[in-house]
Amino acid sequence: MEQPQDEPMAGAVCRIPHQIACPGLKLEEIGLWRWLDAVRAENARLAQRKADEEATPEALPEVG
Question: Which pTM was predicted?
Answer without folding.
Answer: 0.45
